[in-house]
Amino acid sequence: MNTRLMTLLIVLPLIIKADNSVLKMRGVIEPGQENHLVLRGVTNIFAPSDVYTVRALTDKDTVLLRGEVTESLDPSSKAVLGAKNNPMMPIAWLHPYKVNGGTAGITFATTTGASVDLLNEDLRRLIVNATYHLTGLEVPALANVTPVDSYKPSFYGFFGKEHWEELKLKVEDFD
Known about the structure:
By secondary structure, this protein is of the alpha+beta class. Helix content is 12%, strand content 22%. It is built from two helices and six strands, in the order E-E-E-E-E-E-H-H. The protein has helices at residues 121-134, 161-167; strands spanning 5-8, 24-29, 46-47, 62-70, 89-98, 104-110. It has a six-stranded mixed sheet, covered by helices on one side. Strand 5 (89-98) and strand 6 (104-110) form a beta hairpin.
């Protein structure tokens, strides 16, 4: 395996804005990156998370995907016109780095990854592919990203104590 230091990160770098009320996100492959190994088998990313403004990329970063803000939770919804998509923000990229006096490496970063975002098969595949790629393993033509068990995430948000008491959940409810 390659001796360079490699890292996988799911981050929210320098988040400036997010409007999680109605608008949602479709992943758009960055022109010129269609054949990148991390994008192998990734064709349709749609997530209920919003697109975040990212302002910390460098000219050394490789943008893989940009987020197109859409009108609704419907994957076939239209792109929002105007400033929210001009420019489209990066949602997945690779960043090279070098530790002072040490080894060079590459990180993968994405602003997606909320529990409900991971219901999207291609988003899971993107993260799995990045893991294969950054650890020096061969990226499969179509990585199997089927959850090994039932996956029923709850939507993110802030809930008061009453919400959880009404659910009356017990540990055995999750077996």
